[in-house]
Amino acid sequence: MSGSLYINGNACCKGIESIRNIGQGVNAGIWPSINGTLIWALSLVNGEMGWDEWKKNTLAYHAENFPDVWYGIWSGPDTYNSDLSKYPGQTVF
Prior knowledge:
Shape: globular
Number of strands: 0
Strand content: under 5%
Oligomer: single chain
Number of domains: 1
Helix content: 25-40%
Number of helices: 4
């Protein structure tokens, strides 16, 4: 799954991964609500890249890439786990 990538240095570099595993939540997870603002800004700089990133953040794209994860097909949580997670396409649990 694509999207902006933010790695919380405290969580990944100081060994407190029990709080936030890498690829989940604020530690490199996917946040569609935040990505919307970033996509909007990207589209002002490069419309084609903004459109491409917008498509990568749709539920249809998520359903294609993670067909066995029922949430994310017609609705979804606040965050999705990124490819860096042990459970990509799912959510924090």
